[in-house]
């Protein structure tokens, strides 16, 4: 109650005419983060709903919690397993000092050791993302004299979860800067962007610094350890070769394989997706369309087959759990701003992404992942899809009433 009174007391200093008026976006950001906004619609018509921007963003962040927890454990598990395999009993660095001081060490059989080791990679990336991305958000809000939108909380979390644990922090800062400024703010800010800002930042790093953002040794943050990703193995030797690398479908589904910080567990992603659909934050038509497009095109390529490309034979259920498909389906395809807004358009939009991700993975060997590019491709066509759907609806009504 004391904090509430404190904010009420200093608020006049930040409102119009106050001595700190230009810093109102900073005040509003902190106050709305701690408390429900007091502002209401002042002019008719009124639309009352328990859903506001803050609640929507809070729900999305809650939905990412399973992927965060599994990601922390798996990142540490992969690093600890690599350390054990290489016979490194005393790795150098502050992580060794920290875990040794806690009496834990680098034991892959110890869940706490795995979780804490993974946390030491997650936390620096998240802090840099919040600090740098938050700086750009506050800067643009101050210049435009509008509120700092809660959307950045979601953008920052999604951006971190699609980053590899080995990403240099300066690249993390550069990527989130590009994503926030070029992917969102130049178009007017949250709600006006037509591309997913987190994916824009990740795509920029992917093409600007491919050696750090792709390859065989990027996923496990242990010097000297290398291993091909599941999709890279499948592209060169077929999906049957995954067993030789110790990768099973259930392992990929649960999240015990190498990958980015939050993308490895399809199960955790689907738990978050179920929460978003149940709370009506995510539209189920987008999910159905994306699954239908992926499954249908996978089955078609399975029937066509190829003597030279083993990816033609990859079943749809492997596409479902490998790479960033599950994470993209749960948190990127369903993102309401950059997706289609008509019901029929949502089916088409989702199906387009589902087809494109399989096409990129199978037919274009330069990009074995595919989900990131497929979603950005869908973002570009979403307004066009809605336009034609709306025109078709108008034409149908005109014909019916003629």
Question: Tags for this entry?
Answer:
single chain; 402 residues; mainly alpha; 2 domains; 18 helices
Spell out the blueprint of helices and strands.
Blueprint: H1 2-14, H2 24-34, H3 53-63, H4 65-85, H5 94-101, H6 111-144, H7 151-161, H8 169-181, H9 197-208, H10 210-213, H11 230-237, H12 249-254, H13 266-278, H14 284-304, H15 316-321, H16 325-332, H17 343-363, H18 371-401
Order of helical and strand elements:
HHHHHHHHHHHHHHHHHH
Structural class: mainly alpha
Biggest β-sheet strands, sense, barrel: none
What share of the residues does DSSP label as strand, in percent? under 5%
Please state the average pLDDT score.
85
Number of helices: 18
Using only CA atoms, what is the Rg?
Answer: 23 Å
The figure for the number of domains is 2
How many extended strands? 0
Give me the oligomer status: single chain
Instruction: Based on Cα principal axes, name the global outline.
Output: flat
């Amino acid at each position: 109650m004391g904090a509430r009174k404190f904010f009420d007391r200093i608020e006049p200093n930040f409102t119009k005419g106050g001595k700190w008026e230009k810093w109102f976006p900073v005040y509003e950001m902190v106050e709305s983060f701690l408390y429900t906004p007091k502002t209401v619609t002042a002019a008719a018509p009124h639309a009352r709903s328990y859903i506001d921007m803050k609640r929507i963003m809070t729900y999305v962040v809650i939905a990412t919690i399973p992927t965060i927890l599994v990601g922390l454990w798996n990142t540490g598990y992969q690093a600890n397993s690599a350390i054990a395999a290489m016979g490194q009993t005393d790795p150098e660095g502050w992580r060794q000092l920290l875990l040794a001081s806690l009496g834990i060490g680098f034991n892959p059989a110890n869940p706490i050791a795995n979780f804490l080791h993974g946390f030491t990679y997650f936390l620096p990336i998240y802090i840099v993302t919040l600090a740098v991305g938050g700086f750009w958000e506050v800067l643009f809000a101050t210049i435009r004299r509008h509120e700092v939108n809660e959307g950045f909380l979601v953008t920052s979390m999604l951006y971190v979860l699609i980053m590899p644990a080995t990403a240099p922090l300066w690249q993390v800062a550069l990527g989130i800067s590009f994503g926030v400024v070029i992917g969102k703010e130049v178009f007017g800010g949250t709600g006006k962007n037509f591309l997913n800002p987190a994916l824009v930042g990740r795509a920029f790093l992917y093409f600007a610094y491919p050696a750090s953002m792709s390859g065989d040794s990027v996923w496990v943050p242990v010097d000297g350890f290398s291993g091909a990703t599941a999709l890279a193995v499948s592209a060169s030797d077929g999906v049957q070769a995954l067993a030789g690398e110790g990768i099973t479908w259930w392992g990929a589904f649960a999240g015990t394989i190498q990958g980015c910080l939050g993308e490895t567990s399809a199960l955790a992603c689907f738990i978050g997706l179920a929460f978003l659909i149940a709370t009506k934050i995510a539209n189920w038509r987008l999910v159905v369309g994306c699954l239908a497009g992926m499954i249908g095109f996978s089955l078609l390529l399975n029937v066509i087959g190829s003597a030279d490309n083993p990816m033609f034979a990859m079943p749809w259920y492997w596409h479902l759990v490998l790479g960033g498909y599950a994470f993209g389906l749960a948190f990127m395809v369903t993102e309401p701003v950059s997706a289609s807004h008509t019901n029929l358009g949502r089916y088409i939009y989702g199906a387009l992404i589902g087809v494109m991700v399989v096409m990129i993975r199978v037919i274009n060997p330069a990009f074995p992942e595919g989900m990131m590019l497929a979603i950005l491709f869908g973002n570009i066509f979403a307004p066009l899809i809605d336009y034609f759907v709306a025109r078709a609806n108008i034409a149908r009504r005109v014909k019916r009433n003629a």
